[in-house]
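Researcher: We plan to redesign the surface later, but first we want a full-length starting point. Tokens attached.
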């Protein structure tokens, strides 16, 4: 396993050094910068591995856990529209979780059933016009505005795609093989973000999540009542640095050259093009959750009158090479209820590390990519501060 991890890490570093980011669109307007901030604050996509403890007992470490939380933009205001329309964004949201264990008897097998958070839709709105007139905001570039305030409403279905009985045969524990888990939730959220003098972005968000049922087709599974918790309060704190120097790397260029012995033959040679500063950005994220409401039926594996587990905490540190297209590295610690649908009755402690991937990468301010090489030692797409 150590050799595999070392090989993956070396390949990852090679990709980070060689991959280039296409020159982004100029971000001079407030609304363009706001959309870039949204990309920095969204939930993380990752593939990670690490040790687990469930209900106070050490479990077989998963081979990996993958999470996808990806908004797909459906509509947003264009720059030539009225300011209030430019402040609006409407997205389709996809959420998935998948786990796979590495066991002694089975070399690898998935943990069923997987998480489905779809279909989901979200509406985002820039609230800065509450403090200044929208007309004055629309005429300024982003360098004059440091604070960004965003309101979001997120509506989604959440299930595991199963139709079996919620409870096992003992009628006390949940059926973790094919038990039905189904609910819907609405989540309003307020987010404050501010750029610091060093181009770092600090953000704080608070949201309230309420679960509910919609008829028979999208109803709430009865086993979740007074157990799962239909009201949750969450706080998210995040800091993402600007581009900071982190070592150096060397570019190489392949070229063709005719041999002296036979000028009709052409060989490929590689030459070094010089050393360049490697730039990266760091991410630090803390998430706190608290369940509010009746959870009298939540099992504690002692007795039903014991203290119920209501809170959760998650810390994440991430590393993004500036010239990588989508990849990054992360390490994460989580404690609280299991967030894997019907397994919410388990108490989970997990430490994992792995890869981050973003389809919509956040670009720190004051980042410039060279569109046209001005010298042989500069390649198109190289980072220049």
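Model: Full-length starting sequence:
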């Amino acid at each position: 396993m150590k050799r595999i991890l070392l090989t993956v890490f070396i390949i990852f570093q090679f990709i980070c050094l060689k991959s280039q980011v296409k020159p982004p669109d100029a971000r001079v307007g407030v609304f363009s910068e706001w959309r870039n901030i949204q990309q920095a604050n969204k939930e993380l996509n990752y593939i990670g591995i690490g040790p687990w403890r469930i209900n106070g007992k050490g479990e077989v470490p998963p081979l990996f856990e993958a999470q996808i939380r990806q908004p797909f933009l459906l509509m947003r205001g264009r720059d030539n529209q009225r300011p209030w329309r430019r402040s609006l964004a409407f997205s389709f949201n996809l959420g998935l979780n998948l786990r796979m264990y590495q066991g002694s008897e089975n070399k690898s097998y998935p943990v069923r059933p997987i998480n489905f958070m779809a279909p989901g839709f979200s509406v985002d709105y820039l609230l800065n016009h509450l403090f200044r007139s929208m007309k004055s905001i629309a005429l300024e570039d982003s360098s004059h505005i440091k604070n960004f305030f965003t309101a979001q409403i997120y509506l989604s279905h959440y299930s595991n795609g199963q139709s079996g009985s919620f409870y096992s045969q003992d009628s006390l524990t949940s059926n973790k093989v094919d038990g039905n888990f189904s609910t819907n939730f609405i989540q309003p959220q307020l987010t404050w973000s501010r750029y610091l003098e060093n181009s770092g972005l600090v953000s704080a968000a608070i949201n309230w999540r309420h679960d509910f049922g919609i008829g028979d087709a999208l109803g709430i599974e009865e086993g979740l009542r007074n157990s799962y918790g239909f009201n949750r309060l969450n706080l998210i704190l995040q800091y993402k640095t600007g581009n900071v120097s982190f070592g150096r790397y060397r570019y190489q260029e392949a070229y063709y050259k005719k041999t002296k012995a036979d000028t009709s033959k052409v060989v490929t040679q590689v030459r070094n093009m010089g050393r360049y500063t490697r730039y990266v950005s760091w991410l630090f994220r803390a998430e706190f959750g608290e369940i509010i409401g009746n959870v009298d039926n939540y099992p504690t594996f002692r007795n039903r009158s014991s203290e119920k587990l209501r809170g959760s905490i998650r810390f994440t540190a991430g590393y993004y090479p500036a010239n990588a297209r989508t990849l990054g590295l992360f390490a994460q610690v989580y404690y609280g209820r299991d967030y894997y649908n019907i397994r919410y009755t388990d108490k989970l402690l997990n430490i994992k590390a792995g890869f981050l991937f973003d389809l919509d990468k956040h670009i720190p301010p004051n980042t410039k990519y060279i569109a046209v090489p001005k010298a042989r030692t500069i390649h198109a797409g190289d980072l220049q501060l």
